[in-house]
Amino acid sequence: MNFDFSSNPHLIFGPGRLNLLPELAARYGQNLLVLTGRASFMESPSWKELKQSLEKNALCFTLARVKAEPSPGLVDTITEQFRRKNIHCVAAIGGGSVLDAGKAVSAMLPCSPKDSVMEFLEGVGSRTHNGRKIPFIAVPTTSGTGSEATKNAVLSQVGPEGYKKSLRHDHFIPDIALVDPELTLDCPARITSACGMDALTQLLEAFVSTKAGPMTDALAASGLEHLGDSLVRAVLETPGDIKVRTNLSYASYVSGLVLANAGLGVVHGFASVLGGRFDIPHGVVCGTLVAQTTRKNIDVLIRRNEIPGLLKYARAGSLIQGSEDSGLPEDPAKGAGVLIRILEDWTGKLEIPRLGEFGVQTSDIESIVKSTGLKNNPVPLSDRDLAEIIRARL
Asked: What DSSP element (H or E) covers 94?
């Protein structure tokens, strides 16, 4: 058995652990750059307490805001603003967009002032980054992207010729992932829904990936089990339940680990294309397409009579339901169908928007399909299959 596995040098997980950030950042030096989102964290009691603690630890900190999914231009602007400030550590506190921006800024600060991040983006630039960066601490305030566990920063240029591409290097995995579920307690329902469905999609796609292995399977299974009914409960029943939020934070972190090591499937192939062309949140793309895509994958597995693939989908449904101890289903196709019903039920209950609400039209389907890669999808899908998935969620 041979495999490689990438993960953070240091993970700190648990409610209340944000108070360790000043001590952790001080290990690298006095000058700290903090990236945050629009306003929610800055207006919270957590920021007031953190600010006081940073000052007590004699840290000189400056702030930069990330108000949307990060573009190359934003990264270049922040980098230029702080390149001469002798930054010793970058800490990103926010959702996946903030973490990706922080990851990219930490990677670009040591570069020449003449360099743009676009030159190092996969499929856009022609240069390979040398991996040098400023130490980076990732502090997620949502449970979804798993960016705190990955080695790539996803940047978007939205428009008709837009793209969603990665700045990637093994050294870009955050030096420290500081995951404090308390930071997600005030996360709005619509963001909790979209982020949670993103984490679910990442866990599921990595679990059935053609690159999956024993280690990623074990982690993905654990993530699916912890996500269980916690997502629906966090959105519709008990959003202030720290146990529920902790389960989601754990599932999100694990989803980052498994996607980094086993890869993803066609839902994320769609997301790369749609996120570049339309102003649509990544979690919404995943959430609105995962049920329909899973149904299509399972239909193909049934036609090909691929029992191992069906059993994996069936096991995923059992894990989410908390019923794995019941053993393997007598009818794998029927067992896999349980998962489809769960995903379709959640898509409706959580009110995940359709693609048409963001301007995607029937006339766009052909070009979307032509640009969509299957990545590590468990089965091959035809252009007709891909078009049917998109059409069903317009």
From this structure: strand 89-94
- The two tokens of residue 335 are 């067992």
Residue-level pLDDT at 83: 93
Dihedral of CA atoms 225, 229, 231, 236 in degrees, nearest 10, equals -170
User: Among 174, 73, 178, 168, which residue's Cα sits nearest to residue 128?
Assistant: 168
The predicted model scores a pTM of 0.96
Residue 381 has pLDDT above 70, yes or no: yes
Distance CA 165, CA 145 (A): 15
Average of pLDDT values for 250-262? 97
User: Residue 22 to residues 15, 32, 60, 90, 133: CA-CA distances in angstroms?
Assistant: 16, 9, 11, 12, 20
The tokens for 319 are: 């894990």
Per-residue pLDDT tens over the stretch 197-219: 999 999 999 999 999 999 999 99
DSSP string, 130-182: ------EEEEESSSS--GGG-SEEEEEE-STT-EEEEEE-GGGS-SEEEE-GG
How does the average pLDDT of the chain come out, rounded?
A: 95
Class of domain 10-184: alpha beta
Tell me the three state secondary structure of residue 284. helix
The span from the CA of 261 to the CA of 215, in Å, is 9
Give the tokens for residue 32. 């700290």
Phi and psi of 133, rounded to 5°?
A: -155, 170
Q: What are phi and psi of 6, to 5 degrees?
A: -105, 140
Res. 325 pLDDT band, cuts 50 70 90: low
Same fold, 10-184 and 189-392: no
Angle, nearest 10°, between helix axes 332-349 and 189-207? 160
Closest of 75, 197, 92 to residue 140, by C-alpha: 92
CATH entry, 189-392, from 1.20.1090.10, 1.10.10.10, 2.40.40.20, 2.60.120.260:
1.20.1090.10
| CA atoms of 304 and 312, how far apart (whole Å) | 15
**CA–CA distance, 392 with 272 (Å, rounded to integer):** 19
Amino acid found at 15: P
The pLDDT-based confidence of 328 (bands split at 50, 70, 90) is low
pLDDT tier, 193 (very low <50, low <70, confident <90, very high otherwise): very high
Domain locations in the chain?
Answer: 10-184, 189-392
How does pLDDT run across 46-61, given as a tens digit for each residue?
888 999 999 888 889 9
pLDDT of residue 161: 84
